[in-house]
Write a structure and sequence with these properties.
Shape: globular
Number of domains: 1
Pfam families: ABM
Protein name: ABM domain-containing protein
Helix content: 25-40%
Radius of gyration: 14 Å
Oligomer: single chain
Number of strands: 4
CATH architecture: 2-Layer Sandwich
InterPro entries: ABM_dom (IPR007138), Dimeric_a/b-barrel (IPR011008)
CATH class: Alpha Beta
Mean pLDDT: 90
Largest sheet: 4 strands, antiparallel
Length: 108
């Protein structure tokens, strides 16, 4: 299986960064029972409080796709998107490192 690592950058409408962050933290709590989600961290950019970064690690594309399909069109997703002025998603190739994940080439 190939893990999916992603960085999401969400720029909230001016002055709405804290509100957007709270909605994303609520979403993170909802992922606790999703075994395919290995990491979902919500961060605020230190020098830009309306810029929120999400760091994600998924077991595989199927796990990510299942969650995306489940939240598509939900009231929670709509509420968060109303606060977003700009968004960018960067997909990464996970090579390894330190953390609660096996090194590249390790077993799952």
């Amino acid at each position: 299986m190939n893990r999916i690592a992603r960085y999401g950058k969400l720029v909230a409408q001016e002055g709405r960064g804290a509100e957007l962050a709270e909605l994303l933290l609520t979403a993170a709590a909802g992922l606790e029972d999703q075994p395919g989600c290995e990491l979902y961290l919500v961060n605020r950019q230190a020098d830009a409080p309306d810029t929120i970064w999400v760091t994600e690690l998924w077991r595989d594309k199927d796990a990510l796709d299942a969650v995306l399909e489940a939240i598509k069109g939900s009231p929670e997703t709509a509420a968060a998107m109303k606060l977003v002025a700009a968004a960018e998603m960067i997909e990464l190739d996970l090579l390894g490192g330190k953390g609660p994940i096996p090194r590249a080439g390790g077993s799952t």
